[in-house]
Design brief:
The protein has 316 residues and is of the alpha+beta class. It has two domains: 142 residues, no CATH class; 128 residues. Helices cover 46% and strands 13% of the residues. Helix 6 packs antiparallel against helix 9 and helix 8 runs antiparallel to helix 9. The radius of gyration is 20 Å and the shape is globular. It starts with a strand and ends with a helix. The mean pLDDT is 96.
Amino acid sequence: MASLFGLDPATYRPHELHTGERVYLETNCYMDVIIELLHARRDEPLAAMGTTVRLDFEGDQWTFFKPDPGDLERLFGIDIHEMQPWRPIPIQIAELLEAGRTLTVELDAWLLPDTAATSYRTEHVKTTVIPEAIDIDGERLRYFHNGSLYELGGDDFRGLFRLDGADPAMLPPYTELVRFDAGARLTGDALRSASLDALRHHLAHAPSSDPFDRFGRRLAADLPGLLEGDSATYHAYAFATVRMAGAGFELLGSHVDWLLGPAGIPVTAALDRIVEGAKLLGFRLARQRPFDPEPIVADMSLAWGDAMTALHRAVD
C-alpha cells in the first residue's frame, strides 16, 4: 500500500477540534480534511485558523471558509494548488504518495461509507477528501474526510474512480496538488509569532460592516419560504447559513484561545454567544414553525461587534 504517513484508521486519533465538547464537531469538508492532514503530519492546525475572522454574510450564505494558502506555506511549508487530473485518479494518487505528496480530490459522498448516517448510498453530495494511502490492486483507499481517517474498498473504490466504466461526458473531479517542500515548518514561539502576524493581516480584512445585520434582514425575508418548504431545503439553507457561521466562529474562538490564552477571553466569550445563537437558530428553523429570529440575531450582532473590538485591542 502506498502511504503518506503509514496511518491505520483503526488506531488513528483525530485532532481535538474533532473531538470533545464542541457545538460543531465538523465545520466544512475542506477545512476539516486540512485540519486532519496537518494533525497527522504533527503540525498544529489551530495556528492556521486566523482566516476565519474574515467570515462574512455573502448575500445568501455565509463564507465557505478555508485555510489561507499563504498561511499554510508560511507556517508549515505546505503548498496547495490546482492540478490537472489527466490520468486515472488512482494512478496519480499512488505516484504522489510514493513521492511524499498527496492531493485533495472532490468525490461523491454517495460512495463514502463514513457518511453512512447522512449520504452514503442515499444522496449524491460533492465533498473533498485527502488520500493517505492506496492499494490499487487490492482496491483499497485510506482517506481523510470530515473529522477523521477512514478506509473503503471494493465496489465503493471502483465506483468512486469509475473503474467499471463512466459516461465520457462526465467531467473529471477537481483536484489540488499538496506539496510539503514549500518552506520551513515553524514550531513553538516562531509558529505563534507567525500565526499572530497572520491573524492581524486577516483582521485588517474582516467585514467593514456588521454581517449579522445583513443576515438578519435576509433571514426575515427567507423565513416564510423555509416554513413552507421541505426538509431538504431546510438542511441546505441551514448548512449554508447558521451552521457555517456557527462552525466558523467556534473555530475562530479555538484559534484565539490557542494563540492568546487568557488575553483572548473577552474575544472567546463574545464568540461563544455567536455560536450559541447559531445553534438556537438551527433548532428553531428545524421545527419549521413560525418564530421571530430578530432577538437572536440581534444578540449575535452585538456579540460580533464585541468580539471584533476585543480582538483589535488584544492584537494591536
